[in-house]
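Quick one: structure for this chain?
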Amino acid sequence: MDDQKSAETQGATADTAGNGTPLVKMVGIEKWFGKVCALRNINFHVGHGEVVGLVGDNGAGKSTLIKVLSGFHLADKGDIYFEGNMIHYSSPKDAKRLGIETVYQEQALAPHVSISRNVFMGREPTKALGFMNRKMMDEESMGAITRLGLRIKDPEAPVEALSGGQRQGVAIARVLYFKAKLVILDEPTIALSVKESQQVLDFTQQLRAQGISVIFITHNIFHVFQVATRFFILSHGEALTDVKKEDTNIDHLIELIVSGRKEKA
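Got it. Here's what it folds into:
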């Protein structure tokens, strides 16, 4: 309980540091695939040090919205602001440069490769002659993993030897090390055991305690309700509600998702 209070306090401090300007603000976002409207006039924001639960049933538009934010899709209409500045993407690399990192449900890890190599995948430090600096990779990867509260002793162990929760931890440690300001978790607890799911929820709290904002995408209300400070519900590409945790409960959120009823502002 004390750890949770600490995370909430630090998260509130980080949000205040934003001086009222959201870390991310998406205004009037629309996305079409042919004649199908995947997103219709979406207004979405994430504060500094905030955990937002992006929830909805399959096909609600959650993944499309996040792919627009992370640069995989270009919006057909609308504007995106990051730290108060309007941004224009040409690729996901642009989002990464800003500090927007996504951890997908498939984790994008190489199972047969070591933990440290997975943390630095595609960004390996090298020595003067161009050889990978394995010592640095081992030390730095273990540092990031330890800061996340994950107990792993051997950086050379293959990822395939880890549990599902530990693998998610390695993926999250990677974005933590590379100074993410916003971490997008795409169905991070799917196919995990109860114990592993709780581990991922703890990782989420750790990110917030360090002032990192999180978008937690899921259709599992029971998981995200433990860690989110606000909930944004989508259905068939439209926003149903944007509600703070203290103003709702699990039954209310489930009723909205099942009914598809849009709440009045």
